[in-house]
Structures are given as structure tokens and as C-alpha cells.
Design brief:
With 102 residues, this protein is α/β, with parallel strands linked by helices. The chain has one domain: 3-Layer(aba) Sandwich (Rossmann fold), CATH 3.40.50. It has helices at 9-17, 23-27, 36-47, 66-71, 74-85, and strands at residues 4-7, 31-35, 60-62, 91-95, 98-101.
């Protein structure tokens, strides 16, 4: 069963800072994604020279709908995952050192 893991900028930038962004798809096989907001934050850090460039070609960037952006809750994020996956499957939302599972 395919699981979607959503990573925030904290996770992405921490792995990039130690030169190990490529470990993420090895550690968590399956689909890895981030929100467009987290992606924009990561890209800003790269442009400012605070985060090194890495190969993120394996990372899916998800965009919230207007309703999801207005609500901005974990439930909306789970709905986004399910819409992306096109069916109900296990989903992990990873935020820093904690997580939410559905």
C-alpha cells in the first residue's frame, strides 16, 4: 500500500543543511510531498544562501485549494492528501519531530 508523507520546511531544510536530502526517499519509501508554502519557504532559504541547493526532483509539491488555505487545518491537509492519492490510504503528516497519522 502506497503511503504519502508530507514534509514541512523544517524537515526539508534540516536534511539539506547536512547534505543528506537524498536520504529522505531512502528512509521513507513511497510518495514524499510538501506544500507549496513549505516549498516557497525552502526556495527562499536557498536564494538567501542559508540552505544549500539539493536535488528535490523526487519531491511532490502540493497546492492547497482556496478553501483549504482559508481553513488551514490538519483535516484539510489530510483531504488534500486523499485527493492527490485519489483514494483513502495511510497518510503521514510530518512536522518537525512530531507527526499526525490518519
Amino acid at each position: 500500500m502506497k503511503t504519502l508523507l508530507i514534509l514541512d520546511n523544517t524537515v526539508l531544510s534540516n536534511f539539506a543543511l547536512v547534505g543528506r536530502a537524498h536520504w529522505l526517499p531512502e528512509i521513507w519509501p513511497g510518495a514524499l510531498a510538501t506544500s507549496s508554502a513549505a516549498w516557497d519557504e525552502l526556495q527562499a532559504g536557498i536564494r538567501l544562501g542559508r540552505i544549500p541547493e539539493s536535488d528535490w526532483s523526487w519531491l511532490v509539491v502540493l497546492t492547497l485549494t482556496r478553501k483549504e488555505r482559508a481553513t488551514h487545518s490538519a483535516r484539510c491537509a489530510l483531504n488534500l492528501c486523499r485527493r492527490w492519492m485519489k483514494e483513502r490510504r495511510p497518510v503521514w503528516l510530518w512536522h518537525g519531530v512530531g507527526g499526525i497519522v490518519s
